[in-house]
Write a structure and sequence with these properties.
Blueprint lengths: L4 E5 L5 H13 L9 H13 L3 E8 L2 E13 L4 E11 L8 H9 L7 E4 L6 H9 L16
């Protein structure tokens, strides 16, 4: 059904569309985080800069199926650059139809980084099934964070 899936950079003129999907993502229960409109605006500035954040709409033909947000970093452990898949959102009617696999195939073609990391809620069985089927493994780390500003 969704054969020609491509990633298209999210641009300022489509910010509101991205915000709508982002709100749905955070309301869906796949994350415990709460993002305010102010926080969403602040993060969108990083998307526009494009230095460390790469954000893409997932498209097939002219239909937007979802989005993904990737953050670039580097790690000694990874021996180089790392792409952190920060968010992957696929619209409900597009789920279970191979779209996620095609997104990963596109991301894994990059020569900009050598390692992909991601997080998933422990009870998000659907995402865990996808990620493990694609060869992603539990890093056996506990992810900690602290808000400082």
């Amino acid at each position: 059904m969704f054969e020609n899936v491509v990633l298209e950079k999210i641009t300022a003129d489509k910010k509101l569309l991205y915000f709508e999907m982002s709100k749905d993502f955070y309301a869906s229960g796949v994350t415990n985080s709460v993002i305010t409109n102010e926080g969403r605006e602040k993060f969108f500035k990083e998307i526009e800069l494009g230095e460390i954040v790469k954000a893409y709409f997932i498209k097939c033909e002219s239909e937007i199926l979802g989005y993904c947000v990737c953050c670039l970093s580097a790690s000694q452990e990874a021996c180089g650059r790392v792409m952190w898949l920060d968010e992957l959102y696929i619209k409900p009617h597009c789920r279970g139809k191979g779209v996620g696999k095609k997104v990963f195939a596109a991301l894994e073609k990059s020569d900009e980084y050598d390692f992909i990391r991601l997080e998933v809620e422990k009870d998000n069985d659907r995402a865990l099934k996808l990620y493990t089927s694609l060869g992603y493994k539990d890093a056996n780390y506990l992810s900690l964070y602290k808000k400082i500003n």
